[in-house]
Amino acid sequence: MSKQTNYQRGVYYERKTVNLLREQGYHAQRTAGSHGLFDVIAVGHGQVRLINIKAGYWPPPAERREFYGLDIPDEYGAAYLPPVTLEIWRWDKGDRMHYIRLEEDW
């Protein structure tokens, strides 16, 4: 079997994350092609989860700092949104998953 590219590995773990969240009752999808900060968005259980997926490493400090300062202006109805969590999920070889919620753990 040929070695996976970084792109293929990323897609694999994004899909794995979406499937896991769907099994937990969330409406989840990849943000494929967006080139944004989040790879997966999940809605359910009274919350919105914005998730960045990493394969085998935590993002460096400069990349993690991008998550801070994200704000939804009030004119977009921020006061009426459900709670939003900002998360990074890291998948290791062997498909072990670790995650952090930024506002709680970082």
Account of the protein in words:
The chain is an alpha+beta fold. The protein has one domain: 3-Layer(aba) Sandwich (Trna Endonuclease, Chain: A, domain 1). It is 25% helix and 31% strand. It has 3 helices and 5 strands, in the order αβββαββα. The chain has a 5-stranded mixed sheet with strand order 1-2-3-4-5. The protein is globular. The protein starts with 5 loop residues before the first helix and ends with a helix.
Features:
106 residues; Trna Endonuclease, Chain: A, domain 1; single chain; globular; 31% strand; alpha+beta; 25% helix; five-stranded mixed sheet
Global geometry: globular
Distance between the termini: 38 Å
- How are the strands ordered across the major sheet? 1-2-3-4-5
User: How many runs of DSSP E, i.e. beta strands?
Assistant: 5
Count of helix runs:
3
The domain tally reads 1
Instruction: Using the coordinates shown, work out and report the CATH topology.
Output: Trna Endonuclease, Chain: A, domain 1
Q: Sheet with the most strands? A: 5 strands, mixed
Instruction: Tell me the helix content.
Output: 25-40%
Low-pLDDT sequence parts: none
Task: Determine the oligomeric state from the structure.
Answer: single chain
SS content category: alpha+beta
State the order of secondary-structure elements, H for helix, E for strand. Answer: HEEEHEEH
Which percent band covers the strand fraction?
25-35%
Overall pLDDT level: 82
| Gyration radius, rounded | 14 Å
